[in-house]
Amino acid sequence: MPQSPLLVDFAVALPIVLGIAYVVAWAMRRLFGQRLRLSLTTMTIVSLLGISLGLLLSGLLFYGQRLWMPTTILLTVGSSIGLAFVTAAVAALVRPGYDDVDAAAVLAAGESDTVEFKETARWNVREQKKDPRMELAIAKTVAAFLNSRGGVLVIGANDAGEAIGLDRDLATLRTPDHDRFELWLRDLMSTLLGRNAAALPHIQFAAAPGGSTVCALNCPPSPKPVFLAQSKDGGSTDLWVRVGNSTRSLGVDEAVEYVARHWRPTLASVLTGRPRSG
After folding, report:
1. What is the number of domains present in the chain?
2. In a 10 Å sphere around its CB, with 0-12 CB exposed, 13-18 middle and 19+ buried, how is residue 82 labelled?
3. d(Cα 3, Cα 14) in Å, to the nearest integer?
4. What's the CA gap between 12 and 112, in Å, rounded?
5. d(Cα 80, Cα 45) in Å, to the nearest integer?
6. Which pLDDT value is given to residue 241?
7. How far apart are CA 250 and CA 261, in angstroms?
8. Any domain includes 156
9. Is 136 inside any structural domain?
10. Which tens digits make up the pLDDT trace of 3-31?
11. Do residues 66 and 122 both lie within one domain?
12. Pair (122, 79) in one structural domain
């Protein structure tokens, strides 16, 4: 017979509670998918708060309740799921504005540290042929935005901000339409940046001044480093970032220092699942 049963109960309950909170958080992340930008750590904390709320309600509403009674267990688990679901639903509805952009306004403002224009994504304008180097340039720019403060990549516009359109890129596809082009973009990013990174940018097609259609990728800051794989086996990887109006690769020493500084945990980064600003 334990000399302090209450302490034994807490010792047994603590890892169980953490496990339940993690499972609930994981389930909410799976349920809401990319609409939920709160990290798994944040959702686990919310689930733990839900368990605490359930214990409080059990103690306030029911006489003589103990830790392992069915009523207490059901109320704590239910509160954890309920609070996590409500939090995830609200976060999915009021997530940061990395959705549609005003293409005309972006083109008029010109390139900056958070805006980049690419005339084509697949077609080499000088050599008049499909060129994998153009595709690689797209992936580098997306990776740089994800690894920095975020930004908008506009495909189908020249450096002067003039809308050229997507006709040359679309002509390289078996089915020359916007849906197929977006699918190709996602596949390209999945191959070179990884599936998680490929799901982050919001892709839209917008009419620009002059009647041409451009493709805008609105890239939020990634919650973790995104590396570009430049070999088929994924063995060669680079870290690309934005430096002023340009995109550049960091050497090993620079990359280690940048990752440690940019993704250094803060209270805000833990709660939002996004890297610290600056």
Report:
1. 2
2. middle
3. 19
4. 55
5. 10
6. 95
7. 14
8. yes
9. yes
10. 777 778 778 888 998 999 999 999 998 88
11. no
12. no
Q: What is the pLDDT of residue 134?
A: 95
Q: Looking at the structure, do residues 152 and 31 belong to the same domain, yes or no?
A: no
From CA 114, how far away is CA 54, in angstroms rounded?
Answer: 45
Q: Show Cβ contacts of residue 199 under 8 Å, excluding neighbours closer than 6 positions.
A: 34, 186
Q: Which stretches within 128-266 are classed as H helix? A: 132-147, 167-170, 178-193, 195-198, 252-262
DSSP state of 127: T
- In this structure, the answer to whether residues 232 and 120 fall within a common structural domain is yes
Task: Render pLDDT for 158-167 as a digit per residue (tens, 0 to 9).
Answer: 999 999 999 9
Return the residue matching tokens 């599936």.
195
How far are the Cα atoms of 100, 167, 264 from residue 151, in angstroms, in the given order?
12, 24, 21
User: What span, in angstroms and rounded, lies between the C-alpha atoms of 97 and 86?
Assistant: 20
- Domain with 11, as residue range(s), is 5-93
Enumerate the β-bridge partners of residue 250: 239
Tokens (6 digits) for 203? 């892709």
Residues 249 and 187 in one domain: yes
pLDDT score for 83:
93
Residue whose C-alpha is closest to residue 52's, from 11, 82, 12, 87 = 82
pLDDT of residue 269: 54
Q: Contact, 216 vs 103, CB < 8 A?
A: yes
- For residue 118, which of 89, 138, 146 has the smallest C-alpha distance? 138
- 61: Cβ contacts below 8 Å, ≥ 6 apart: none
Mean pLDDT of 169-190: 94
